[in-house]
Amino acid sequence: MNGAVQTAPGLDPTAAIRAIWNSNRDEVMGRVAVLEDAVAAAIEGRLSPENRVAAEREAHKLAGAAGTFGFGRASEAARKLEGILAGTDPIPLDRTLVAADEVVALRGDLSRDPSPPAEPAPDRPLTPVPATQGSPLAGGPPRQEAPSGPLVAIAVAGQGRRKQLAAAAIDRGFQTLVISENGWLPQEGPPPAAALVDLGEGDGSLVLLAALAALDPPVPSLALTPSNAPCDRVSAARAGARGFLSAEASPGELFTAVQNLLAPPKAPESTVLVLDHLPASLSSVHAALQNAGLAVVGLTEPARLWEAMEETQPDLLILESSLPGVGGAELCQVLRSDARWASLPVLLLTAYDNAAATAALFDAGADDVVASPFDGADLAARVRNRLKRTRALRGHAPVARDGDPLAVDHPATRTAGTVAAEDDVQVVVVEDDPLLAELLRHALTTRGYRFRHFTDGQAAADELAGSPPALRPRVVLLDVGLPALNGFGVLRQMALTDNLASTRVIMLTAHSSETEILNALELGAFDHVAKPFSMPVLMQRVRRALGD
Amino acid sequence: MDNPRRILLVDDDSGIREVARTVLEMVGGYDVETAASGLEGLEKARTSPPDAIVLDVMMPGLDGPATFARLQEQPETRDVPVILLTAKTQAADRSRFASMGVAGMLPKPFDPMALCDQIAGMLDWQP
After folding, report:
1. Residues A506, A542: contact at Cβ < 8 Å?
2. Is A7 on the interface with B (CB under 8 A)?
3. What letter would DSSP give residue B78?
4. CATH value at residue B88
5. B3, B12, B23 ranked by CB distance to A13: nearest
6. Record: contact B22-A24, CB cut-off 8 A
């Protein structure tokens, strides 16, 4: 007979593929290392063209190999990296940060056991395919045409209650996805847009809330509180619940709450003043921000800036960096020296997308720097975030400072070494991995946060856990595995010296047990983020901890 | 079995070579020869023409399309059907490959367990 024959009994190709993976793992991880180096170099603006081409090739190979071995997420990450590395134009800073996240996802996925080889990704229908206990209650057969409308995950006990909720969901144009309340999330299909999680189901519901909040982007969830059983709202809020409702609420009430949760945040009454001498460029900024619901005042003549500032009293200023005559950086410096405008958020648009030029603009006092040509949605998001944070800081700052015995009025009580600049540190990073610390430094400084870095736990505790402490940042990103004193030790010292009220601690956990994490939250940690984490998610947590 | 069909697999990634060889041998019962580069593939195809060639597109040196062109120039290999292993990112190139006269295109990553069926389907091989 020619051609195919039956597989010989006792020979399992799946096991054979697994064995091949095991013997190829080191080589594949070598490719990942090449990509990690390339991304680190790209972030620092020192990726050579040769290394870039080599890394693009490694990414391409990984995309094919990882998927074939059953690592779907790794394959997707490698494909994204290939796209980012392709070409010869400088890689924009925000793209390098995406690349950093994807490299983390790549290594993370390849570090697990391979799943059974799956269908190739391209033709996979985008219908939720819940496994084990999950089953779509609405939307017809899962493999046929997907119904439209946001997908709401429901983790609620009782089949009758679930059916009732699913019916109410359809009436309001939602799809539903029933998920287990034991922290299980479907691996396939699109993530839900929102989730309803019953807290009456014990610790599993907290794990699920945390898992939803840790997705990228985070999935907002509403916690349902049972009236007949005790439940821990504080823990639920810490785990990421965005609101609470009685478990007895009618399905109508529940989905109205979901609608409110998903409704785009109302545009704040904020005015943005834009100075750009090129009318075309000005109008594209104008359009992007107006679409985001912001009031925009445009200006093409630098000479009119002060007048326009007085007239419009803007909440944020966007300056083109290469204005004729006086540059945007100079204008920014002048603004910073004027008491009235010193705290006005300023965003600079620059055509020179390299690390040195960007650093110079930050030095001039810019809160954010955006490479031009820009993506409209990205610009709008940056502006909105900046406005939100500025409002939060204004509302937050005086409270934190009033009770501070180290306030500037009492120079005599000042601890040696506590210079004024220390008061300005917003975020402290305690992390001994130099690459991760560098990524964090980059992510924080490009978002305009003033930060300080410690590599060992004892040094950090010395500064953060005095009474009063030498350093009182708003937020501490605290690694667990640290030299000298581990992260839990640092946290404990901060708790014992009563420093967790003014400083919010986000634990960066890698192999910590659930008990350890719960103990940390119990001690007063504000939040925890598991490694490997997505940088945008972590930055979102930092923003939240800063008081948004 | 007597005289199984012979497939030459050309890919520079050793993991892909091993996986494809394993399933093509174990599941498909084919006789599989591998080559790690376009040049090696050309040489092996010329000295002992297989029944089909599976050829990766992106390889250092002689890439898939260039190897295919050379295969078309060699009288010994001109009539051997060639299946290209293409990446998803190369979707734009797919029509170009099709117009060159390849027998089929297989997107990477491929599902190892479906590989035999896909290849047999493209080549109209009966089991």
Report:
1. yes
2. yes
3. T
4. 3.40.50.2300
5. B23
6. no
